[in-house]
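#struct-pred

JT: dropping the chains for the assembly here, can someone run the whole complex?
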Amino acid sequence: MRTAKSKGLALCPKCHKVNKVVSEPIQCSRCMGSFYQRKYNSLQYTFAWNLAALLAFIPANLYPIMVVYQLGVPKEATILSGIGEFIDHGLYPIAVIIFTASIIVPLMKIIGLFVLVYKVHTGMRLKPNKHSKIYHILEFLGPWSMLDVFVVALMVTIVELGFVTSVAAGPAINYFTITVIFTMFAANSFDPRLLWDKKEIQSKEKNALKTT
Amino acid sequence: MTQKKQPKQWVACQQCDALFDKPLLKQGQSAKCTRCGSVLVERKVDSIERSFHWSLAGLILMLPAILLPLMGVTLAGQHHQASLFDCVLVLIERDFFMIASLLFLFAIAVPIVRLSGALYLSYSFKFNRLKPSLLNFFRAYHHLDHWAMLNVFMLGIVVSMYKLLDDTELSVNLGLLSFILWLVCSTMASAALDQDYIWEELEQAFLEPNTTDEIA
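RK: done, full complex below.
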């Protein structure tokens, strides 16, 4: 397959102009932005952001995310116990949405990106077609985990009836937003073209072995 | 043959880096990468007109969407309602600075900046007022690609409405309607903007025909 890299060309990530590579970082001749042929230190950055997101995800689940005051009595709820409450009240669709957005999606994103980084690094059982699709799904799902944060923000503002009921946000909300933003950074710093590069190298090595 | 005299142009796939000759597309057509199947280039129909009108509508709807109350609750005779902007103010008042700033950024600031950016770009194209500074402007516009979260906020509204319906009386206000329309407008405005077309036009207007295209 003919790739831009093999021809000594590089695609500008901002304006999608194909530039000639002279020295890195390359300055785009169209939009004047500077960029690298592949995202700079992509795997390291992805791994680091991902690790940070995973660490922040632990306190996000342990601390309460929302505190409901009813007649002055505080009742704390973590992400998981909040979901349990929905199930108790019979609000299954909401329980499923919140569970997907705030537990499954961040975890899938973190695990998925770790797997992708590992696959590119070692080249084990690499299927670029399938893996780049997975990467797309992960990238698309990113912002949707902010759902819980927005729900808490809305609840805090709207349920403010003085002594009767009021809602406050718990410390977990900060950790949770950090998790979401860091996973978004991680997904942005991963470069799916590395998957194809690695595959190309592998198939070349295979051919070289066959001929000798 | 005039076409042969033009320098050869390349396109590369953003996802897998495969290199192709630049296809000639009509409006509404798109080219897909043969290796990974993602869209290489796309010519959107009537891009400038559409993004101009959508973003103009979005900017008009912005004020009611942000300032009118989204919804209100009534419990034990007390009534309370809040708009999107109130959300930010209340969160600041109660010292939740982090969510306040994130809410402001992702649900107010970024969508507004993107809408006005799209309006400015399509305005300059529509009335032929291209300036070299647009090159920098459009590049900066791309930085915000991932960070508008109006759609997520909308789902947040739906979820919290469900939550509140359980034990309070909920009332829906005009703010919600204008918020939904604002969401539609900003989504359509950014979907209608044809980036490849804009970059090509800008390049032809301000830059010398490029030497990088001629290597074959």
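JT: nice. The radius of gyration of chain A is 23 Å. The helical segments of chain A are 42-62, 79-89, 92-122, 128-141, 147-158, 172-189, 193-211.
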